From TrEMBL:
Keywords: Signal
Pfam families: SLT_2
Region (Disordered): 366-394
Native organism: Roseateles terrae
Residues spanning the signal sequence: 1-29
Compositional bias segments (type: Pro residues): 372-382
Protein name stated in the entry: Membrane-bound lytic murein transglycosylase B
All copies of domain Transglycosylase SLT, residue ranges: 52-356
Low complexity composition bias: residue spans: 383-394
Length: 394
C-alpha cells in the first residue's frame, strides 16, 4: 500500500468515526452535554505469594533470629507480590550482545546530570568536605556516585522492596540463559537483612520502595550494606538514606573507605596494552582485580604512562568494549577496584570516575552552563582481543 493511499484511508476514517460516535447523542437530546464518567479497568495486580510452602517455611525458620513473631512474619511475607519485570531485569543482556563504553558513558556524563551535580555540590559543600576529611574519599567521587545512581535523588526506584527481594529470593528466573547464574541465595540473605532493617528502624516493610534489585535511597544501598556501612552523618539520631542526602554522603564515603579506598591514589593510568594477543589476554585474566605490578605490565609489553610507571602497588588491565570499534584500555588501581565494589562493572566504575572528573572541572571553572562534554581521551584504543565481554548494566 502506498503512503498516499494509507494517508487517504486514514483521512476517510477520521471523517466517518466522529459521525458514528455522535449518533447516540442525537437520539437522546435530553442527555446532550452530560458526560458519563469513564470507567477504566484497573491494571491487573501482580499475584501475591500467599502462604506458599517454601516462603512460610522461611518465615518459621527465620522469625526468631530476625526478631519477628512467626505468625506476623508469615502474614507479612504472604503479602509480597511476584514481579515478572524484576525477573526480566535481573538477567544479563542477550549472549553475544556487543558492549559499548561510548554509549554507556553518554547515559550518565551529560549536561543535565552534571548541572544537577553542581547544584548538589553547592547545597552540600560543607558535608561533602567533611566526608572527604573523615573518610579520605574525594568529594567529587562521592557526588558522582550519587549522581550516577539516582540523578541526585530523582530516580530512587518504584518497586516495593519486599516484592523485589522476595521475587528474587524465591522465584529467581529459571531456566537461566547461558552465562547467568542463580543468585537466589544472595537475595534471600538480602531479604533477611531488609526485614531486620525495617524492624530495627521502625520502618514499614510494605511501604519502602527501591530498585528492581531492592536497592534503596539516594545512594542505592542494598539492605545488607545499609545495615553495615550506612552512617548518621547529619547527626539527627537515626540513619535515613531515603530522605537525608547528608546521610547518603557520609554512607557512600564510609562504604568506599571500608572497601579499600586509598586517599591520594589515582584510580587509573593511561596504558597501551601489549600488541601480542596472548600477552594481552594474560594481563586481562584478573579482570578488575589489581594483581600485577608495573614490572609485570612492562614485561608483558604494555606501555604505561609516565605517571603509571611511578605507581607503587598492583594494577589491573581494564578493557572497555566499544561496540564494533576497537576496545579502550586503562590500568586500574586499588581505587578503581574499590569503585567496582559499589557496582561490579568496570563500565560503571569508569563512568563514575569520568563523571567525577568532569564535575570537578565544571565546578572549578565556575560554569553554570556548558556544552555536552566530549569523550575523555584517557583510555587508549587498541586492537580487539578475544574473550567474553562483561555486563555493563549499572
Amino acid at each position: 500500500m502506498t503512503l498516499r493511499r494509507r494517508t487517504l484511508l486514514r483521512a476517510s476514517w477520521a471523517v466517518a468515526l466522529p459521525t458514528l460516535a455522535t449518533m447516540p447523542l442525537l437520539a437522546d437530546a435530553a442527555t446532550a452535554g452530560k458526560k458519563k464518567p469513564l470507567k477504566l479497568r484497573p491494571a491487573p495486580q501482580a499475584p501475591a505469594f500467599g502462604e506458599r510452602a517454601d516462603l512460610m517455611q522461611f518465615a518459621d525458620q527465620q522469625a526468631a533470629a530476625l526478631g519477628y513473631d512467626a505468625q506476623a512474619l508469615r502474614n507479612l511475607l504472604a503479602q509480597a507480590r511476584v514481579q515478572a519485570s524484576v525477573q526480566r531485569l535481573i538477567l544479563p543482556g542477550a549472549p553475544g550482545q556487543a558492549k559499548d563504553w561510548g554509549a554507556y558513558r553518554q547515559r550518565f556524563i551529560e549536561p543535565q546530570r552534571l548541572q544537577a551535580g553542581l547544584a548538589f555540590w553547592s547545597a552540600n559543600e560543607a558535608e561533602l568536605a567533611r566526608a572527604e576529611a573523615t573518610y579520605g574519599v574525594p568529594a567529587q567521587i562521592i557526588a558522582a556516585i550519587i549522581g550516577v545512581e539516582t540523578f541526585y535523588g530523582r530516580i530512587m526506584g518504584g518497586y516495593r522492596v519486599l516484592d523485589a527481594l522476595t521475587t528474587l529470593a524465591f522465584d529467581y528466573p529459571s531456566p537461566l540463559p547461558p552465562g547467568a547464574r542463580d543468585r537466589s541465595g544472595y537475595f534471600r540473605e538480602e531479604l533477611r537483612q531488609f526485614l531486620m532493617l525495617a524492624r530495627e528502624n521502625g520502618l514499614d516493610p510494605l511501604a519502602m520502595k527501591g530498585s528492581y534489585a531492592g536497592a534503596m535511597g539516594w545512594g542505592q544501598f542494598m539492605p545488607g550494606s545499609w545495615r553495615k556501612y550506612a552512617v548518621d552523618f547529619d547527626r539527627d539520631g537515626h540513619i535515613d538514606l531515603i530522605n537525608s542526602p547528608v546521610d547518603a554522603i557520609g554512607s557512600v564515603a564510609h562504604f568506599l573507605r571500608e572497601h579499600g579506598w586509598k586517599p591520594g591514589m589515582p584510580t587509573h593510568y593511561n596504558v597501551k596494552p601489549p600488541v601480542d594477543t596472548a600477552a594481552r589476554a594474560q594481563l586481562l585474566v584478573s579482570d578488575v582485580l589489581p594483581q600485577l605490578d608495573v614490572n609485570q605490565f612492562l614485561a608483558a609489553g604494555a606501555d604505561l604512562s609516565i605517571e603509571g610507571l611511578g605507581h607503587v602497588g598492583p594494577l589491573a588491565l581494564i578493557e572497555l568494549q566499544m561496540g564494533g570499534a576497537a576496545p579502550v584500555y586503562v590500568a586500574g588501581t586499588q581505587n578503581f577496584y574499590t569503585v567496582t565494589r559499589y557496582n561490579q562493572s568496570s563500565y560503571y566504575a569508569m563512568a563514575v570516575i569520568e563523571f567525577a572528573s568532569t564535575l570537578a572541572s565544571w565546578r572549578q571553572a565556575g560554569q553554570s552552563s556548558a556544552p555536552a562534554p566530549a569523550p575523555a581521551p584517557t583510555p587508549t584504543p587498541a586492537a580487539p582481543a578475544s574473550g567474553p565481554a562483561s555486563d555493563i548494566r549499572p
